Amino acid sequence: EVQLVESGGGLVQPGGSLRLSCEASGFRFSGYTMKWVRQAPGKGAEWVSTINSGGERTTYATSVKGRFTISRDNAKNTLYLRMNNLKPEDTAVYYCATSDGFRGQGTQVTVSS
User: Fold this and answer.
1) Which of 10, 26, 6, 30 is nearest to 18 (CA)?
2) Strand order of the sheet with strand 78-83?
3) Distance (Å, rounded) from C-alpha 39 to C-alpha 25?
4) Are 55 and 74 spatial neighbours (Cβ–Cβ below 8 Å)?
């Protein structure tokens, strides 16, 4: 059974940092491009970042470039998203997803003073 389990979300003040994790199981994680997407209340899903299977190539949405860093540890079947200088508009449920669209249950990130 394919599973993606996100963790690491929470409440943080503007300017703060969080690191999200996504533990994968049930498929060959090291063979898949992975991505993070987010969904804010009342809005559609927004792509955040993508990393290729080996971790050498990354891309970012303009809204997070320079503040977020995607990475992966294929030995641990885990995907990460380091988020720095968080802004209120980053508030959303964050999901990790495979390149073919399967995603986890999400983790809530709230940026507020």
Assistant:
1) 10
2) 3-7, 18-25, 78-83, 68-73
3) 23
4) yes
Which two three-digit tokens encode residue 113?
Answer: 């003073």
Task: Please say whether the dihedral angle defined by the alpha carbons of residues 27, 109, 50 and 85, taken in this order, is positive or negative.
Answer: negative
User: pLDDT (tens digit, 0 to 9) for every residue of the chain, 113 residues total?
Assistant: 999 999 999 999 999 999 999 999 999 999 999 999 999 999 999 999 999 999 999 999 999 999 999 999 999 999 999 999 999 999 999 999 998 889 999 999 999 99
* Length of the chain as a residue count: 113
